[in-house]
Amino acid sequence: MQALERRLGVTGSIAIGVAAMVGAGVFFVWAPAWDLAGEWMLVSLALATIVATLNGLVTTQLAIRVPTSGGIYSYGRAYRGEFVGFVAGWLFITGKTASAAAIALIAATYVLPDQPRGLAVAFIVAFSAVVISGIRATATLSIGIVAVVVGGLVFLAVPAIASEGVSITFGSLPGWGVLSAAGLMFFSFAGYARMATLGEEVRDPVRTLPRAIIGALVIVLTLYALLALALIPTFAANGVSPAPLTALVSGDAMWLVGLLALVASLGSLLAILAGLSRTSLQMARHRDLPGALAHLSPATKGPLFSELAVAAGAITLVLVTDPLWLVGLSGTGVLSYYAIGHYSALAQPRAERFLPPVVPILGLVLCLVLVVSLPVASLIAGVSWTLLGVLWFVIARSIRRRKNPPQG
């Protein structure tokens, strides 16, 4: 079996994780979260942060013991068997391919709002070319994107807090709306474990992965907290718009928000494409996907055919589906994927754990709670795709058994 080269250090891994998190979501999630929870979206942000932290800790614990590409697909196989691992991988690939398509459309909409699909395809092609060129190029570009986006968002949030202060008056608790808003806000955190999907390309994974995952999470949480404190008083006074971060700038600086949204969306797209191709590689190695996807390029040492297949899938979704449906499918898939991660961690022997069992138990419960708080259409889409994946697993396994019958 061909092995990927270990090129990534802590800084590059953190950059890929932050770039995956600070994407399109942070520029859109505040308005629907405000509509659902009002000032209580601070509680929603806290709940989403708790879920993300639990996921990050458990993913770290798993990644240390299974330091290979594939993320929870590999962990599920190691601790819960082939079928559970396959379901995790299928959820990740379908959910994140949908997410990549949606992000490309969002980025293109900022530039060509009337006809975004062609430009979205161009974005996917261009950033797939970066991924195909090698993981070091991906990490280098991610560092640049993170510097621009995080710096720009801090530049927007801090002056707003300094000039207006922080004055928040809580109304009546909206109940279920807090959970629904937390489910939306979680998607703005959902890129941190992308480092784990690149585990086979990380130098010294036992040392690097925990620092990278937690480091990326701390950076993004700090940024989101600043944005929430800046936005809530503005929303309470003036209401919200479809582009909520424009509330932090005057008319002359509106272009800055659009530029940051474009750069952040494309950074998230870059990281997602890299993680998707690595999970596809692992699944192909185990024949859960066609074996050709496991081929590594002699030039870049990366999974060339997996990278091309991911790009083709995302382009197809851009051309034939609706962005809202894509976001719903992605959301259900991502939370279910992490739920399987917690379920897998519960099977780790005591000697392999640095977390008490209550951590994956709580993470599993909270992931499932957020899944059921999502719109019904999202649940139906997620269940439908999962059943399709199970059908593929059964058919592929049956074919393999006929070709290689057990020796008796």
From TrEMBL:
It is found in: Cell membrane. It comes from the Bacteria. This is Basic amino acid/polyamine antiporter. It holds the Pfam family AA_permease_2. GO terms for molecular function: transmembrane transporter activity. The chain crosses the membrane at residues 12-34, 40-64, 84-112, 118-135, 142-161, 173-192, 212-233, 253-276, 308-341, 361-394. The lineage of its organism: Bacteria, Bacillati, Actinomycetota, Actinomycetes, Micrococcales. It comes from Pontimonas salivibrio. Keywords: Cell membrane, Membrane, Transmembrane, Transmembrane helix. It is a multi-pass membrane protein. GO terms for cellular component: plasma membrane. Its main location: membrane.
